[in-house]
Amino acid sequence: MSGHGSHGRQNRRRLLVVLCITAAVMVAEVVTALLTGSLALLADAGHMFTDMVGVGLALVAITVAERITTSRSTYGLFRLEIFAAAANACVLLAVAGWVLANAVPRLTGPPDVHAVPMVVVAAVGLLANVVSLRVLSPSQGHSLNVRAAYLEVLGDLLGSAAVVVSGLLILFAGLRVADPAASIVVALMIVPRTWQLLREAVDILMESTPRDISLGVVRTHITGVDGVVDTHDLHVWTISSQRLVMSAHVVVSDGWLGRSGEVLDALQRCLAEHFDVEHCTFQIEPTGHLDHEPSGHD
After folding, report:
1. What is the domain range of residue 22?
2. Same-domain pairing of 193 and 251
3. Which of 52-56, 61-65, 180-184, 269-273 has the lowest mean pLDDT?
4. How far is CA 227 from CA 205, 210, 252, in A?
5. Is the CB of residue 235 less than 8 Å from the CB of residue 210?
6. Which of 34, 40, 73, 298 has the greatest count of CB atoms below 10 A from its CB?
């Protein structure tokens, strides 16, 4: 658990830094968007706001998840991380829809936009996103919530770049349509990565088998252990990101029933080595026991 606590503290510090950077840039973008009339900048500010919400949820989730287990929460509160990621994804999708709904009508009648402050603030946002990505990069492979924040900041970086380009087009070519066009680009960049995040979060909440785990391969490893003749009721799921859990009924030959401790040790070693399973639960059964259990086993 000490490793998880260390990761949690590192993630919390990184997210706090990103939260402060994002909040400062968001305020600057909102003020500048209102002064310049840029929908693209306002869209980017809206995306920044959802980042703030997402990072805030991640911070709360990480802090609460580190509480010890109780008789009512035997796995602790790690699942809060996934609820936070799912909520964040839903907010992002809503923001993308709002931006698209407001940007499309402007394509035929784009308003005047003050391009210079728009470009300056978007460039500042671009640099801030680069800094935030560097802060989050070391931890984004270990936590779904940190990865969510990383993807959001990456989207912000691309969005800020689009705003900079649109501002330059307005400034030097007089293409006012570049502002709503950039807004649409920002919104469309939000959707695919956010949908992927939401799908991953829902898979975890539904206790689906992780997409990178093959039950057939797991079954082969289990039945390859000395003394094991079959397995059924095999389930693999995740409590939160990077916390893989497995349970199975394991049928052993009659000659190995008295050596079930050895079988359990071998199973634990095999699965920890090949699948990095954090928690395994095995029910050791003699041959023929399945006939006495309810039907419907896999």
Report:
1. 2-205
2. no
3. 61-65
4. 35, 28, 5
5. no
6. 40
